[in-house]
Amino acid sequence: MSVISPVAVTLRPLAAEDNPAIASVIRQVSAEYGLTADKGYTVADPNLDELYQLYSQPGAAYWVVEQDGQVVGGGGVAPLGCSEPDICELQKMYFLSSVRGQGLAKKLALMALDHAREQGFKHCYLETTEFLREAIGLYEHLGFEHISEPLGCTGHVDCEVRMLKSL
Fold it and tell me: What sequence ranges are listed for the domain N-acetyltransferase (predicted)?
């Protein structure tokens, strides 16, 4: 009888050399769910290939999930642009199907919310789409509440699900 060892999964801060890998994950997951650039989803973000530079800004942070040396997911938090200075945004939470359902998104989101509190944010906002039902369930479980009007100037015009959480 052979024993299969568990796959090593690491959650760590984004490094500059991770830019191509996390952009690829985001594009792959977006394609899986039909989230195309022409509809204003994350894959249309002009900084998608430069996430390390984006999340190196004050108040921002991004983490990647690495499995057997490969980036398989990630997520982060940053100040919400064009908004009140005490509101941040949970951003770019994407995970390949191979690591979904293991609690990694919850762990990463909790890290991001802790970081946001440490940075002095009072609220965390997010936008998503109804196509991402599992994500919405997680956000509701974490205490995010649905709101009707968009906040900030995210540019994600087709993200019809907007949520807010007090920190």
Answer: 9-167
Q: Which residues contact 2 (CB under 8 A, 6 or more apart)?
A: none
pLDDT tens-place string over residues 103-127: 999 999 999 999 999 999 999 999 9
Angstrom CA distances, 111 to 5, 62, 90, 131, 143, stand at 27, 10, 11, 24, 15
Torsion of CA 132, 137, 140, 145, to 10 degrees: 40
The reply to whether 75 falls in a domain is yes
Inside any domain, residue 1:
no
In a domain, 3, yes or no: no
This prediction has a pTM of 0.90
Quote the CA–CA distance of 80 and 78 in Å, as a whole number: 6
Which residue is it, tokens 């293991």? 102
